[in-house]
């Protein structure tokens, strides 16, 4: 087998290789919220994917070691929030372990189905969880859209690339 020009040196599949490759992949930033008992929970996700238009389905991944997993694992509904480039601080708060994610300055309210909805996001959905599929040390959650607002706030999307939050360039 011959090497293809420009492909560099192949490495054996590993967690390190996986992380290195996906640092080069730009992704939109979302926050997923749920409730456990009466308490809100949430986390920053870059794994949000549209799955189907009929029925309208989304998916996202969550580690079973994440502090939000107990809430997501038992929730009937979740909130999906598309963050704007002005919300880097909010994304960082929901990504930080041990942070008071719903304390000031985070603005939020109870939305449809009792799901915590964040203020100031570009768009949001409330989704009914239809499956939690084991995938290594994560679960892939499939959820059907039941409510939403495609234009909750103005602005452009927040991106995640090379381990940092950023914005689109024109």
**Span between N and C termini?**
41 Å
Alpha-beta classification: mainly beta
Order of helices and strands: HEEEEEHEHEEEEEE
CATH superfamily: Electron Transport, Fmn-binding Protein, Chain A
Q: In what order do the strands lie side by side in the largest sheet?
A: 3-2-6-9-10-5-4
Helix content: 10-25%
CATH class: Mainly Beta
Unreliable spans are none
Largest sheet: 7 strands, antiparallel
Count of discrete domains = 1
What is the secondary structure topology, with strand pairs?
Elements: H1 15-22, E1 27-28, E2 30-36, E3 39-45, E4 49-53, E5 56-63, H2 69-74, E6 77-82, H3 88-95, E7 108-110, E8 116-118, E9 123-135, E10 138-149, E11 158-161, E12 164-167
Antiparallel strand pairs: 1-11, 2-3, 2-6, 4-5, 5-10, 6-9, 7-8, 9-10, 11-12
Molecular structure report:
By secondary structure, the protein is mostly beta strands. Helix content is 13%, strand content 44%. The strands form 3 sheets. The protein has a 7-stranded antiparallel sheet with strand order 3-2-6-9-10-5-4. A 3-stranded antiparallel sheet has the order 1-11-12, with no helix packed on it. A hairpin with a 2-residue loop joins strand 4 and strand 5. The longest helix has 8 residues.
